[in-house]
Every structure is written in structure tokens, then in C-alpha cells.
Amino acid sequence: MAKNRLVAKLLIILALIILVLIMGLAGCKDDGKRKALAEAAQARAEIVKFKAETVQLKSEVSYLNEKLAAANQAKDNLQIQLGLLIEDSNATTTDAENVQQENTKLKTLLAEQIKKTGELEKQVETLKAVINALQARIEQQKATEQPKATEQTQASK
């Protein structure tokens, strides 16, 4: 805003210089002098105009430099965030690989346990068959011994 005020003041000064020169030219009788004064006034006016434009351009350059610095800072922040995201992604990938390896180990262990369980179930069935056979023998022996015991009890009476 201060720069815009400066530009406005310079333009007012330019207008005043031109007005003074025009008034001075009105009193001159010599056309060559008048023409030279008019050209000098025009040159001065252009110099003031160029100075005002220079101030305006410097202001715009300063503003654009600030914007560029802010954009560069934002870019740097995004690069840092991208680096962190890549690290997180790599860590997640490593974790997933570890979980997959653990899963494979557990599947192998489960298969081994299932196989052992099947073997144990076969052993249990074999033992049940042996127990049943033994119980049947015991029953047979009891049956054959019971008549003998009944005969002995009757004979002793």
C-alpha cells in the first residue's frame, strides 16, 4: 500500500511539472525554445513514469519472491512427509512379510499337529480294541471259573 501511495505521489509531481512547463511555454516566443522545453518536460515526465513503474515492479518482485519462498517451504515439507510415508510403507511391508512367514510356520506346525493327532487317534482305537479284547477274555474266564466255583461250593456242602 505504501508503494501505491508513492506511485500516486510521483504521478502528481509529474502532472505538476508538465503543468509548469506548459505555462512556461505559453510565455515563450521562440518556437525552438518552446519545442525544446516541451521535449524536456516530456522526457522528465517519462522519467518520473519509469521511476514509478520501477517501484511498482520492485514491489511485485518482492511479493513473488515471498510466494516462491513459501512454495519452496511447502515443497520441502511435502518431501519430508513423503520420506516418512515411504519409511512407514517399508516398515509395513516388512511387518507383512514377517506375519506371512509366521503364518507359514504356524500352518506347518498345525499340519504336524494334525498328523500327530491322527496317529494318536489310531493308537487310542488300537488300545480300545486291546481293552475290549482283554475285557472279553476276563468275562470268558469269569464264566468258565464260575461254574467251577459253584461246583466247589456245592461239593463242600
What labels describe this entry?
0% strand; rod-shaped
Would you give an account of this structure?
The chain has 157 residues and is mainly alpha-helical. It has one domain. Helix 1 runs antiparallel to helix 2. It starts with a helix and ends with a helix.
What is the approximate shape?
A: rod-shaped
Helical percent range? over 70%
State the end-to-end distance. 140 Å
Topology as H/E string? HH
Mean pLDDT: 85
Q: What fraction strand?
A: under 5%
Overall number of structural domains? 1
Oligomer: single chain
Give the low-confidence spans: none
Q: How many helices in DSSP terms?
A: 2
SS content category: mainly alpha
Largest sheet report? none
Tell me the Rg in angstroms.
57 Å
Number of strand elements = 0
Please provide a brief summary of the model.
With 157 residues, the protein is an all-alpha fold. 96% of the residues lie in helices and 0% in strands.
Show the helix and strand layout:
Layout: H1 2-26, H2 31-156
